[in-house]
Amino acid sequence: MKKKFNKSKVALITGVTGQDGSYLAQFLLDKGYKVHGIKRRSSSINTDRIDSIYQGPERIDRRFILHYGDLTDSSSLNKIIGNVKPNEIYNLGAQSHVGVSFEMPLYTSDVNALGALRILDSIKSLNLTKKTKFYQASSSELYGKTNSLMQSEKTPFHPFSPYAVSKLFAHWITINYREAYDLFAVNGILFNHESPQRGETFVTRKITMALTKIYLGLQNILLIGNLDSKRDWGHAKDYIEMQWLMLQQKKPIDYVIATGIQRSVRDFINESANLLGMNIKWVGKGINEKGIYKGKTIIKVDKRYYRPSDVIYLRGNSAKARNSLGWFPKYNFKQLVKEMIDSDMKKAQLEMTLKRNYEKN
Length: 361
Ligand code: NAP
Ligand code: F7E
What we know:
The protein is an alpha/beta fold. Helices cover about 40% and strands about 15% of the residues. The chain has 12 helices and 15 strands. The protein has helices at about 20-30, 50-55, 55-60, 75-85, 100-105, 105-125, 160-180, 205-215, 235-245, 265-275, 320-325, 335-360; strands spanning about 10-15, 35-40, 65-70, 90, 135-140, 185-190, 195, 220-225, 230, 235, 255, 265, 280-285, 290-295, 295-300. Strand 5 (about 135-140), helix 7 and strand 6 (about 185-190) form a beta-alpha-beta unit. The chain is globular. The structure holds NADP nicotinamide-adenine-dinucleotide phosphate and ligand F7E. The site of NADP nicotinamide-adenine-dinucleotide phosphate has 26 residues, from helix 1 and strand 5.
């Protein structure tokens, strides 16, 4: 049955091909929005996460429309925003990898910091400040080298990477446009959130992909960085709902979104391994630490994955969002890890079948 199409709501998502963008696009379509997404040009296909939407009825109904654009390119942004005149813009596009930001600090700043400003300024120049609401994907990385045991909206920021510094600019320029031009613009300070759609080089996905492949004999070893780093990991599906909710409020207010529960990278590996029935024995310390399974080293610390300055402790206090917006995460840590392991196991099994068929022929 066709869903009712709410003609009055038009959303524009930057980063629509990413983890959050793909979930948010489906979420908004389910709410009856018309959704425009910005994708950047790449030589290989980068739309895997949204192909199922793009090939579905939403595209035929013209409810899901993609535009080529780039956060480094004001002209593309002005043209798209001017044509679409959205009610809501979700700025999720970013060079979002903290480790990579040390290798590409200028590019990261251009996309993340100036990209947010380019959109805000486009809204202002096009006289859309009364029509268009703006959501900025702010980050717990702003707390960085924190002394606080639980970080809330009141905790001072100490960004600890070029990524975090670029996001700090985006955070404050969003507040500045809100205060200077009365724009409905908010920051969602989101703690780490993961899913089967998580990028493959973030630590959680790297772990679930590697362990499922090791289990099936498709990979021998997982090389990893700082095992003691601690994060507050939630599920992306719970978090994208909040991005939308923040734009439905009477007043533009910034919120922290987090589970309040903290685990280490080692905990994430142990939970994943337990689900696979693999009992890992840890030996050694620091750079010499190893994970042994059935007498074989299957996990090894590799200092190539260490960062020049690493955020080692994050745990969010989202009491304000819980009290004002009535938000509680639906997924817990175990459910999150299980969903990721199950999904990567299916992919690994498919890879194994293809490999066997290839070897037979
Ligand atoms: P992601 O999977 O890495 O997606 C990033 C998106 O940005 C992709 O669609 C990517 O396009 C696009 N992009 C990159 N450079 C671009 C450019 N120059 N112009 C236009 N688009 C560009 O990130 P995510 O996990 O969904 O996170 C969404 C946002 O929330 C990001 O801004 C991230 O920094 C922020 N954030 C994430 C978390 C988290 O735990 N996931 C927590 C706090 C904040 P391609 O597909 O072509 O690469
Ligand atoms: O690292 C450590 C690493 O890359 C988590 C982004 O979405 O969340 C994400 O940033 C921790 C770090 O995520 C490896 O040193 C160990 O301490 O998965 P990550 P992140 O840096 O927390 C925030 C909230 C964002 O805003 C970002 O956009 O794990 N770690 N070994 C490793 N990390 C990676 N990537 N790879 C390793 O092998």
